[in-house]
Amino acid sequence: MRSLLVVLLALLCPAAGAGPLRVFVSVLPQKTFVERVGGPAVDVQVMVQPGASPHTYDPIPRQVAALAEADLYVAVGVRFEDAWMERIRAANPRIRILDTSRGIDLRAMEAPDDDDHGHPGGEASGAGLGEQGQPPSGAGQAPVQGPRDPHLWTSPPLVKQMAAAIRDALAALDPTNGAAYAANYAAFAAELDALDREIRARLAGLSERRFMVFHPAWGYFADTYGLTQVPIEREGKEPGPRALATLIDQARREGIKTIFVQPQFSHKAAAQVAKAIGGEVAMLDPLAPDYIENLRRAAAALAAGSARPRLETQP
Question: Has residue 12 been placed in a domain?
Fold first, then answer.
């Protein structure tokens, strides 16, 4: 009788590890990170679809239904999570939520007229960094003033930290594959270290370490590599004629030659500034899934921009 009960329970209850862990992430780069650590033991779905903005995204009904069956949600701090995380918990009380921004110094989002470029206490972007220009740990962190910058993944050292948290969360949910998660993480971490060294070498000799961005999504990249991003837009809105003229004057005065734009936002103002300063617009999407190649393109664009001749400011 007892053996029959065991057989019935085995048939009625799904066995642990019978299928891949069902994981949701907020943005495409996170999908890459989870898949690199999880391998075939994870099935990853992305909330913010290509071309959409994580600042204004609303999940579609199909995604909400799938979340009710998910094992893990990997959060990163994008704005739509603030409104939806409690709803996700309510729809699926058993889901584990991993906040990969925990323990990381969060910077504030820059605005065009911010003298301190988004850092509390008057630090410019690229200041207050840890050893070798890496972002410091979260110990003793002061509260961020203003909207926080969620684009942590633009810094390879921070991605390495996030990937370690993903490894631990997957292993806690699926101990059977813990050794595989650890091995996958080690390989991915080594690749991130190599990317970090490559970018540092590529940017070491830059004569100009400031670049413009339409939307300030590259702050952690800038902090990591001793750069400063100068935003063009404010809250997604293009600058008016007066503000545009000020930006052009600033770019000429500071010798800025590279402007990053991404497909989710207008390119008109960036193109006007680039034309006026003899610079170049680099189309770079911080949400691109090909994470490592995308950061290589960012470093290459900055190196190419630094090599362009500087226009003298008008007397």
Answer: no
| CA neighbours closer than 13 Å in the CB half-sphere of residue 219 | 24
Torsion of CA 19, 24, 28, 30, to 10 degrees: -90
Query: Residue 308: pLDDT band by 50, 70, 90 thresholds?
Result: low
- Domain-embedded: residue 8: no
CA distances for 27 relative to 55, 73, 214, 295, angstroms: 11, 11, 20, 16
The domain spanning residue 252 has which CATH number? Answer: 3.40.50.1980
Coil/strand/helix, residue 17: coil
List the beta bridge partners of residue 25.
46, 74
More confident residue, 139 or 228: 228
Domain containing residue 313 = 104-134+205-315
**Co-location of 58 and 193 in the same domain:** yes
Residues 198, 64 share a domain: yes
Q: How far apart are CA 149 and CA 42, in angstroms?
A: 28
In the chain, the amino acid numbered 40 is P
- pLDDT tens digits for range 50-60: 766 776 677 77
In whole angstroms, what is the distance from residue 205 CA to residue 203 CA?
Answer: 6
Q: How confident is the model at residue 185 (pLDDT cuts 50, 70, 90)?
A: very high
| pTM score | 0.79
